Amino acid sequence: MRLELALLPESGELVEIAFRKARKEARKMGKQRNRLKKAKSRAIKKIEISANYFNEVMQRPATSFPYLKKLHPFYKELIGATVDLDKTLPAIKRLGTSGKIALRLKRQYISKAKGLQKGEEGKATAIVREFYGRLSSIAKKAGKAIKAYNQTVKKARELPNVRFDLATAIIAGYPNTGKTTILGRLTKSRAKVASYPFTTQKLEIGYLTHNYDSIQLIDTPGLLDRPLKKRNKVERKAIAALRHLGKAIVFVVDPTERCGFPLEKQANLLKDIKKELKGVKVLVVLNKADIASEEEINAGKKAFLKAVLEGQGIESCLEEKIAKILGK
Ligand SMILES: Nc1nc2c(ncn2[C@@H]2O[C@H](COP(=O)(O)OP(=O)(O)O)[C@@H](O)[C@H]2O)c(=O)[nH]1
Ligand SMILES: [Mg+2]
Questions:
Q1: Ligand 1 atom closest to residue 183's alpha carbon, by position in its atom list
Q2: Can you say how many angstroms the Cα of residue 143 is from the centroid of all Cα atoms in its chain?
Q3: How far apart are CA 293 and CA 263, in angstroms?
């Protein structure tokens, strides 16, 4: 399962929270008759609480660092489609350093407060104010790194929940060729929809059991359903990420061309996908065989050698063939 990554407060909000916590803790302190002691201990408390909180927040991203670094290559590439992971990791380091700077300042200002003499009670507030100013400026300088980290977190939270332990085939083909229908038929359940960390694309995921083995089938509407040259950079990166996910492509063809795309176009799309996802195995399915004429089926077989016939009510061996190309 994926870890829930937390967003960091933006720099202004972060110091606001730190100051509020400090004020609250200082108010809780017991009564103190001695004016100097009282002023000193409150100032020290405020400095301590605010700095410690600030540092604790700044170290949080480092805890998620191993998670981000060890992401499955599919996720890494998917996040990488919209966020520069190479910039996120230095940002995390930068935040950790800011936290440490705050701790160093804390020690410095606490000793300033400790050094106050009788008659200097009024200076305690000034010391705290000065410390707060320094903390604000550290936070401000870290603002960019906070934003960079939060952006990565947002993308990581949107990652589709797929399983990497299962043999996986990806369904492709022009719209209306019958991909969703086939997914539903094979997996006998409504596909689970998983969002993508960009645009409106969603993955549709189904599972089938073959000889006690689970197989994951993933439909990628909006990605593998039109020519490569029509896709933007982000989409191309997402397609590249699919390489890490599936060993095989189930390419759905509509030989009746009722989907609105001639066979030639459908064949070109397959060529396109093969070029982009080098090395994946491909199983071509001639769908809608129940309504296709003999002529249409023959044309389909000619355009796609070794294709499997599939259609509503047709005794098909699609499951068997998918399992076979996945080596199951
Ligand atoms: N006759 C027939 N129609 C089909 C078959 N598979 C899908 N369809 C129809 O084709 C249309 C598009 O199907 P859909 O699964 O949504 O295609 P997708 O866009 O590739 O996911 C729908 O109206 C389906 O009912 C099939 O095997 N036989
Ligand atoms: Mg569909």
A1: 15
A2: 22
A3: 14
User: Which residues are close to ligand 2, an ion, with C-beta < 5 A?
Assistant: 179-180
Residues 57, 60: Cα–Cα separation, whole Å: 5
* CB distance 314 to ligand 1 below 6 Å: no
Q: Is the dihedral of CA 40, 46, 49, 51 positive or negative?
A: negative
Instruction: Identify the pLDDT of residue 316.
Output: 80
The DSSP output letter for 228 is G
pLDDT of residue 197: 61
Q: Determine the Cα–Cα distance for residues 3 and 70; give it in Å rounded to an integer.
A: 12
* CATH number, domain containing residue 180: 3.40.50.300
Distance 179 CA to ligand 2 centre (A): 5
- Residue ending a domain, among 101, 127, 157, is 157
- pLDDT at position 1: 40
The residue nearest atom 14 of ligand 1, judged by CA position, is: 178
- CATH of residue 43's domain is 1.20.120.1190
Q: Which residues of the chain have pLDDT under 50?
A: 1
d(CA 250, CA 85): 31
Cα(300)–Cα(267) distance, integer angstroms: 10
Cβ atoms of residues 203 and 196 within 8 Å: yes
Which has the closest alpha carbon to 80: 243, 268, 215? 243
The alpha carbon of 182 and the centre of ligand 2 are apart by a number of angstroms equal to: 9
Residues 21, 22, 25, 28, CA torsion sign: negative
Q: What is the DSSP letter of 118?
A: T
Boundaries of domain holding 25: 11-157
Confidence at residue 195, expressed as pLDDT on a 0 to 100 scale = 67
